[in-house]
Amino acid sequence: MVDIANEIKQQVQERRPLTLAMILTNRWFLYGVSMLAFFLAWDMAAVARVFSSGLPRPYEVVLQLWRMMFDPLAGKSLLGHIWASTQRILIGFTIASLVAVPLGLMMALNRYVNAIVKPLFDLLKPMPPLAWISIAILWFGIGETSKVFIIIIGTFVPCLLDAYNGVRLVEPELYDVIRMLGGNRRHEIIQVCFPAAFPAIFAGLQIALSIAWSCVLAAELVSARSGLGFIIILGMNLSRPAMVVGGMVVIALVAWTMSQLVSGLERFVCPWKREIDSR
Amino acid sequence: MREERHPGQAKIECKDITKVFIQKGKQRVHVLDHISLDVKENEFVVILGPGQSGKSTLLRIIAGLETPTEGHVRIDGQEVEGPGPERGLVFQGYMLFAWKTVLGNVEMGPKLRGVPKKERREIAAHYIHLVGLDGFENHYPHQLSGGMKQRVGIARAYANNPQVMLLDEPFGQLDAQTRYFMEKETARIWETEKRTILFVTNNIDEAIYLADRIVTMEGKLPGRMHVVYRVDLPRPREHTDMAFLKLRHEITEASELTL
Ligand SMILES: Nc1ncnc2c1ncn2[C@@H]1O[C@H](COP(=O)(O)OP(=O)(O)OP(=O)(O)O)[C@@H](O)[C@H]1O
Ligand SMILES: [Mg+2]
Predict the structure, then answer these.
(1) Are residues B149 and B185 in the same domain?
(2) Are residues B121 and B232 both part of a single domain?
(3) What is the pLDDT of residues B214-240, one digit of tens each?
(4) Percentage of residues in chain B having pLDDT higher than 70
(5) Where are the domains of chain A?
(6) What pLDDT shows up at residue B257?
(7) Domain that includes residue B148, residue range
(8) What is the least distance, in Å, from the CA of A273 to any CA of chain B?
(9) Are strands B164-168 and B12-23 parallel, antiparallel or unpaired?
(10) Of B65, B141, B185, which is closest to A176 when you measure between CB atoms?
(11) Alpha carbon distances (Å) from B196 to A54, B42, B123
């Protein structure tokens, strides 16, 4: 009866023999090549003492990290310091996103909320979050509160802005669809606004997360007895480059893991999103 | 309470519709000028006009999404005062919910009207079958081709069981072959479930293939109705039929005077 076979998108799986050219252009192969080249260049630079004694060899960094797993610094092992930074981020990031995302959505949906919040927000937005560090320490001391405060300040802006823009950029005809189907304003918000804004909200969360790492590091560099920023500053004070670079590497790994977790959450919440081909 | 319907009363009645948009508070855009049009129950009327002749605006007024500057629209004698589920609208640009599957899109109308889950699943399944999308219930719109997307759009509008279907250049974005195929499907769906249909297009062949009656619009703003053609060809129609070609020639000739 109905033949729509010609409309179905087909994935064609071609079979090709393995050739040298294929290996050379294989994605994973190229990843490997680029990583290997990087570490080789790093090692050669360290051996050649390009930065005099300031650059450790890669294996020295690994060794340093291994030692820190077992010998506590300031009463905490490496895992303890990782957790100290992570905890600050989780608290600050959670508080900021739980307040900023709903506020951004409400600003986009209600012009009175928008009229009240927007001027304040526009005033505070251009101020770099790190400008708040000193005042935060004056207000809250050098404890956890001031660090969490900085993270909240830094992550609030992208969370709010992306939720707001996510709703603003919804195709208005989609609201017409809802109303033609018999829906009301509440349906427009639940069925169109929120789901359409999800991808933008997640983009905001990703940006917020990377800002949160900058904020926590800056705060820890200024004053802390724990955390990855503390390890870096301690390494600098003790003139142990392996410790500094080790701290940097660990930060990159932990930050990457957290961003993957947020991506995973996004895939779970928004299964409809077109898989963006990473090739 | 519904008014008693007089025999022969039009299903859709547009009376002297004029639309002027006010842009930026000052500039007036006169889009429609005194359009009057009656569509009978279960009639298939095609509005044929070139781009930017106010076709979408007319359809949105009948849908209740815009208010006419002058004149009024009545459905079954009741004046249209806003959008509502007794009119189904199929959009020029599909307008599917990207976050809903085919099933989720099609069952949206019944869901918004509070139809219980089991029942609305049955309704959705029925219309998904009607448009030939069996097996694609759990696909998301981005996994579908253009023709399939518009099938979903049609099924979604049908699922509310509207008395009137309004289609705004539904196949305008499709390639010629798929378009031709979808026209055949539209004729089949309409034969299976008769509705009063108002169908907008800029394609003469599409108009003659589908319509009981063709209303042509003039090619410049403000949009005015030009000529009304009755198409008395037997269905299913053939594009190569002599009578088909003759009517096509007639419409082209008449249009060229004004376009
Ligand atoms: N909301 C609006 N405000 C101001 N002008 C509008 C508005 N909607 C439509 N118009 C104007 O009305 C004119 C006709 O638009 P309309 O979309 O009805 O034409 P159309 O025949 O459907 O065109 P197309 O074939 O491109 O779909 C356009 O020139 C447009 O600028
Ligand atoms: Mg249009």
Answers:
(1) no
(2) no
(3) 999 887 778 888 788 898 888 889 888
(4) 95
(5) 2-55, 65-269
(6) 53
(7) 93-161
(8) 8
(9) unpaired
(10) B65
(11) 81, 4, 20
Query: Is residue B259 included in any domain, yes or no?
Result: no
Task: Give the distance (Å) from ligand 2 centre to CA of residue B148.
Answer: 20
**Could you read off the pLDDT of A165-213 as tens digits, one per residue?**
999 999 999 999 999 999 999 999 999 999 999 999 999 999 999 999 9
Single residue among B116, B145, B161 that ends a domain in this structure: B161
Nearest-CA distance B169 → chain A (Å): 15
B83·A191 Cβ contact <8 A:
no
Q: Residue B222, preceding bond cis, omega within 30 degrees?
A: yes
For the beta sheet containing B27-39, the strands, ordered from the edge strand earlier in sequence to the opposite edge, are B27-39, B12-23, B70-75, B78-79
pLDDT at A275 over 90: no
Residue A75: which pLDDT band, with cuts at 50, 70 and 90?
confident
DSSP string, A224-259: -SSSHHHHHHHHHHTT-HHHHHHHHHHHHHHHHHHH
Q: Is A161 left (phi over 0), alpha (psi -120 to 50) or beta?
A: alpha
Query: Is B77 part of the contact surface with chain A (CB cutoff 8 Å)?
Result: no
Mean pLDDT of A107-129: 90
- ipTM comes to 0.90
In chain B, the number of structural domains is 2
Answer yes or no: do B175 and B237 share one domain: yes
Are B83 and A180 a contacting pair at CB < 8 A?
yes
Q: According to the model, what pLDDT value does residue A16 have?
A: 65
- Residue B246 within a domain: yes
CB pairs under 8 A between A and B: 81
Kindly state the tokens that stand for B32.
Answer: 């429609």
Residue with tokens 């506020």: A103
Q: Do B98 and B33 lie in a common domain?
A: no
For residue range B190-212, what is the model confidence (pLDDT) as tens digits?
A: 988 889 999 999 999 999 999 99
Whether A181 and B98 lie within 8 Å, measured CB to CB: no
My answer on whether B80 and B177 are in the same domain is yes
* pLDDT in the model for residue A24: 79
The answer to whether residue A129 scores a pLDDT higher than 50 is yes
Measured in Å, residue B51 CA sits from the centre of ligand 1 at: 9
- CATH number of A65-269: 2.30.40.10, 1.10.3720.10, 3.80.10.10, 2.60.370.10? 1.10.3720.10
- Chain A interface mutation, best of B60, B99, B174, highest count of A Cβ atoms under 10 Å: B99
- Which of B141, B161, B181 marks a domain boundary? B161
Whose C-alpha lies nearest to ligand 1, atom 18?
B54
- Which token pair is B241? 């039929």
Reduce the DSSP state of residue B200 to 3 states and report it.
strand
Distance in Å, alpha carbon of B54 to nearest chain A alpha carbon: 17
